[in-house]
Amino acid sequence: MSADLNGIRMGVIGGDDRELYLIPELQKQGAYIVGVGFEKASPIPGMMLAPSLQDLVGQVDVLLFPMFGTDERGVVKAKYSDQPIVLNKEVLQAIPARVPLIIGFARPALKSVAEKMGIQLLETISLNEITILNSIPSAEGAIQMAMEATTITIHGSQSLVLGLGRCGWTLARMLQGIGAQVTGVARKPSDLARAAEMGLQPLHFSDLEDKIGRAEIIFNTVPHLILDRVMLEKVARDTVIVDLASIPGGTDFEYAQMLGIKALLAPGLPGIVAPKTAGRILAQIYPQLILRHLTTMNTPVKS
Predict the structure, then answer these.
(1) Collapsing DSSP states into helix, strand and coil, what is residue 151?
(2) If you compute the radius of gyration of the chain from its CA atoms, what whole number of angstroms results?
(3) Which domains can be identified in the chain, with CATH numbers?
(4) Is the pLDDT of residue 303 over 50?
(5) Going by fewer Cβ within 10 Å, which terminus of the chain is more open, N or C?
(6) Structural contact between residues 142 and 219, judged by C-beta atoms closer than 8 angstroms
(7) Which residues, in sequence order, are CB contacts of 198 under 8 Å at separation 6+?
(8) Mean pLDDT of the residues in the chain
(9) Contact 68/268 with Cβ under 8 angstroms?
(10) pLDDT band for position 293 (50/70/90)?
(11) Minimal CA–CA distance to 278: which of 172, 156, 175, 139?
(12) What angle do helix axes 166-178 and 128-149 make, rounded to 10 degrees?
């Protein structure tokens, strides 16, 4: 459903190919876009470029940062920028109180500073409407990576999906559709029951160490260290691991390499394998989120 963004000034900061599709979709809904970090991209008709992030924040009604967010130093992921973009204290201090900062993944330090400064921080990585839709390109990309890395077919493979959350369910269903022998690993009895109902092999995390040795492909979606040294010792050396969890993932990659196990970290797959779809997903969800917030804040829309 399209929204009326007429007159709303949005600052789009950095990102990857998703933003190249997101921006025109927002423009179609009436938004006026000012960008930072697009110097190396093909010009987007109607989008103005600000010289710096600090110059941008006072010109707009909403700030849109990438799904990836920033690194530990506050550097914003910006594929098409010719210089680093840093979300530092000076920039945060320049953000007007009425302007929400929308970001995919907010690191704890950013959350803490934003709270102290009274900045309206909206983290979208936990929104079901985004995460569930994003799980589709994420699952497709993870399966593609596994296909390229393994010497066997997905069909008939012993595939483990660690974590039956929003992405895990989509991934398990796709693997099952290809013909994999899928084991769904979870902790909640309700998730294990659903896995059994779907025809998956349910496995509690407490039993994973005893069963992981039979896996030929492991997909991890849990953002905690699950595949540690103890667990990796039980993994067959020709097993392929695809880790979809947020950086740093849920795998001890250094130890996996020492053991000769191929382990791949795969963050940000929607923007890599299907940026057009991923951009359109954001363009579908962001407008309603923004309008709800601006209404709550009683922010005047400027034309």
Answers:
(1) coil
(2) 21
(3) 9-126+274-297 (3.40.50.720), 129-267 (3.40.50.720)
(4) no
(5) N
(6) yes
(7) 172, 173, 176, 184
(8) 93
(9) yes
(10) confident
(11) 139
(12) 40
Q: How far apart are CA 254 and CA 261, in angstroms?
A: 10
pLDDT surpasses 60 at 298: no
Residue 129, sorted as left (phi over 0), alpha (psi -120 to 50) or beta, turns out to be alpha
pLDDT of 7 over the 90 cut = no
Taking a C-beta distance cutoff of 8 angstroms, is the pair 131, 244 a contact? no
- At residue 299 the predicted structure's pLDDT band, cuts being 50, 70 and 90, is very low
Alpha-carbon gap, residue 260 to 282, rounded angstroms: 38
CA 265 from centre of chain? 13
CB atoms within 10 A of CB 158: 18
- Rounded Cα distance between 78 and 70, Å, is 10
3-state secondary structure of 42: coil
**Residues found in the chain:** 303
This prediction's pTM = 0.85
pLDDT digits (tens, 9 = 90+) for 138-163: 999 999 999 999 999 999 999 999 99
> Which residues, 6 or more positions from 9, have their beta carbon under 8 angstroms from its beta carbon?
31, 32, 34, 59, 60, 61, 62, 302
Judged against a pLDDT cut of 60, whether residue 207 lies above it is answered with yes
Residue 185: CB atoms within 10 A of its CB come to 31
Q: For residue 37, give Cα distances in angstroms to 19, 41, 42, 95.
A: 11, 9, 12, 18
pLDDT tens sequence across 127-142: 999 999 999 999 999 9
DSSP 221: -
240's tokens: 């392929």
DSSP, collapsed to helix, strand or coil, labels residue 127 as: coil
Residue showing tokens 């260290």: 225
Residue 4: CB partners within 8 Å, gap ≥ 6?
Answer: 29, 30, 291
**Res. 180: pLDDT tops 50:** yes
